[in-house]
Amino acid sequence: MANDLLLEARGLSKSFGALRVLHDISFDVRGGEVLGILGPNGAGKTTLFNLVSGDIRVDDGALVFAGNKLVGQPPYRRCQMGIGRTYQIPRPYGGMTTFENLLVAASFGGGRSEAACYARCAEILRDCELSDKANRPAGSLTLLDRKRLELARALASGPKLLLLDEIAGGLTDDEGKALVALIRRIRDSGVTIVWIEHVLHALLAVADRIMVLNFGEKIAEGAPDDVINDPEVRRVYMGIET
Q1: Half-sphere exposure (CA, 13 Å, Cβ side) for 159?
Q2: What are 209's strand-pairing partners?
Q3: pLDDT of residue 241
Q4: CA angle at 37 for the pair 65 and 123, rounded to the nearest 5°
Q5: What share of the chain is helix, strand, coil (3-state, %, to 5)?
Q6: Is 23 helix (H, G, I), strand (E, B) or coil?
Q7: Beta strands 68-69; 161-165: pairing state
């Protein structure tokens, strides 16, 4: 339900050997909002997504989604619970058609029969501007269309929470505007979004709140204007000394 607490993260930490990637990260995400995540390369942003989606295990901390504990749940189960995500590098099933990629996501991720998924998958293809490529092998798509397919597959699973990992990278200004409009429509449909993005103007056009990471620690969180004008954020993320 809108504005109810959907995702709770408490004290998340992750290390790879001696390298500490995340340390004691806590935040909440409420239904219907868009939370943007900023930070320089190596800040731990994608690792945070991997902890939420279950791609890697939490060392310490707790994750609760819609009242259910996530730690210990495999990725496929989290997807069925309503967590969808995209990846920086698209991961389509290259030998399947674009439409078949969506059917797999909708049937296995969403827990529905293929027949029950056709109309919704066709609608998602239209929204993501892929209708004319529905019958092409996904491996033959351009990078831009593979990014569109990555978003479409995440939507096909029927997520309550959508994790977007730098989906706007490599887009032209016009393509970026179209993406922002699409993400607004997704939010307006009732899907909650957490969005990692380096294309700042795209993120600021949609985000209700922003959280900033640096070297695995949270250094700021709040309203977009307040965060962007924070002296530490300007120094770390924009290289501006104040």
Answers
A1: 31
A2: 35
A3: 64
A4: 65
A5: 40, 25, 35
A6: strand
A7: unpaired
CA distance 41 to 46: 10
Which residue type occupies 90? Answer: P
User: Are the C-beta atoms of 159 and 31 separated by less than 8 Å?
Assistant: no
Interior angle at CA 226, CA 223 and CA 228, nearest 5? 105
d(CA 185, CA 197): 18
CA distances from 207 to 34, 117, 122, 159, 237 (A): 5, 30, 28, 18, 17
Task: Measure the CA–CA gap between 201 and 19, rounded to whole angstroms.
Answer: 32
Q: Strands 217-222 and 209-214: what pairing?
A: antiparallel
* C-alpha pair distances (Å), 58 with each of 48, 62, 83, 134, 237: 9, 8, 17, 38, 26
Model pLDDT, residue 242:
57
The total number of residues shown for the chain amounts to: 242
Interatomic CA distance for residues 225 and 238, integer angstroms: 14
- Nearest Cα neighbor of 213 from 21, 14, 56 is 21
Contact between 1 and 174 (Cβ < 8 Å): no
Secondary structure class of 124 (helix, strand, coil) = helix
- Phi (first) and psi of residue 13, to 5 degrees: -140, 145
Question: In this predicted model, what pLDDT tens digit does every residue of 29-73 receive, in sequence order?
Answer: 999 999 999 999 999 999 999 999 999 999 999 999 999 999 999
Instruction: Determine the Cα–Cα distance for residues 84 and 153; give it in Å rounded to an integer.
Output: 9
